[in-house]
Amino acid sequence: MNNELQIITGTRLGRCHIVEDVLGRGSFGTVAKCQNMHTNSTEAVKVNGSAPMFMDLAFKEISFLKRLRCLDADTCNIVKWNGYFFHKQSICMTFEVLDQSLKAYLEERGSPGLPAAEIRPVLHQLVTALAHIHSIGVLHLDLKPDNVMVVDCTQQPVRVKIIDFGLAGLLSEVKVGERRGTPSYMAPEMMLAAPFDETFDMWSLGVIAAELAMGCMLYPAYIDYDALSNIVETQGQPPDDILDRGMRTPMFFCRQKNKRPEIILFCLDGINLIKSMLHLDAGQRVKAREALQHPFFSFSCIPGEAGDMESEWSMFKASIAEVAVRSCGQKVTGACRGCNPKTRWWTLAVREAVRLKKETFRADFGVS
């Protein structure tokens, strides 16, 4: 990183921003909490690196932030962008200051995740945000707990906002073969370089929802192969038409004549919503506007039933945690191990194995 980006407390950025604290550093640059001496307000300043690649990314993000200005940041649950300025050879974007990432918030809470009563408002806010973002033709394409911020951790219910539009794209301009996102939250069609649309973001949100319930990642992976392997093991392989259209399908699959595994799901409203977000077929995956009408968000506590709902959600978290253990080798608590499989709300019965191989096709892939 260049010397001009060695930002510490007291550093002056541009004409009127004084660094009060460094909130984070990454490959892109630095995020700092700054005092705006001109407005006497506190702002979060994202200082991008000065390399040409980072400059290009910064200008692209600014173009999307300008598009998002037609939306109300508070009602649409997206970060408020105040503008940008230059610091030496770097672009600095200024935002409202938010409390902490959803990832940090969840890590502080720890296992076994959040109760349904806390997940519901968070999920509703994120679906609302995506519905508004998608309504103007913008795709986020990198939704994950790191890119969701808690506005104020002391408030209940928790308020959240989506941040970081550095990898965003326009629905009308996305190109097949472009790779965006993070493997653990990436929809299978992106890994396979098949056509994708706004339902890509809904897949990411479905993975986040499961993570909130479990207290750990659903599909932990550093590379696409590991993420796709976990998906296939727990949900079966993507539909044939997606495999046929995926330019990178030969990197992951060999043609086999085995029948598709049967997946049986027994679920309550919340699990049904997650399932609809994690649909392997992007054409069948729920869209944000549709998700807002889901019964999960209209649930109201009826005397004598609230406890049952929490109990059912606990069983769901235990069973999905076991799925994650089977695919990723993570430990399960004694309570998870003690759940009766016959009473679980998410039961995956894969009756015929589908193996994912790191080799090319032995024959042309086609619809069986």
Question: What brief labels describe this structure?
Answer:
Prot_kinase_dom, about 375 residues, 11 helices, Transferase(Phosphotransferase), domain 1, single chain, Phosphorylase Kinase, domain 1, alpha+beta, about 35% helix, protein tyrosine kinase activity, disordered C terminus, 2 domains, globular
Structural class: alpha+beta
In helices, the fraction of residues equals 25-40%
Sheet with the most strands, sense and barrel status: 6 strands, antiparallel
How many helices does DSSP assign?
Answer: 11
Q: Domain count, please report it.
A: 2
State the strand order across the main sheet.
1-2-3-4-6-5
- What's the count of strands? 11
Keywords: ATP-binding, Kinase, Nucleotide-binding, Serine/threonine-protein kinase, Transferase
Organism: Stegastes partitus (bicolor damselfish)
Protein name: Protein kinase domain-containing protein
InterPro entries: Kinase-like_dom_sf (IPR011009), Prot_kinase_dom (IPR000719), Ser/Thr_kinase_AS (IPR008271), Ser_Thr_dual-spec_kinase (IPR050494)
Mind explaining what this structure looks like?
This protein has helices at residues 52-68, 102-109, 116-135, 188-191, 199-214, 224-235, 240-245, 269-277, 288-291, 306-328, 334-337; strands spanning 12-13, 17-26, 29-36, 41-48, 81-87, 90-95, 100-101, 138-139, 148-150, 160-162, 169-170. By secondary structure, the protein is α+β, with helices and mostly antiparallel strands. A 6-stranded antiparallel β-sheet has the order 1-2-3-4-6-5, covered by helices on one side. Helix 5 (199-214) packs across helix 8 (269-277). The longest helix is centred in the last third of the chain and has 23 residues, at 306-328. Mean pLDDT is 81; it is low at 260-267, 301-306 and 324-368.
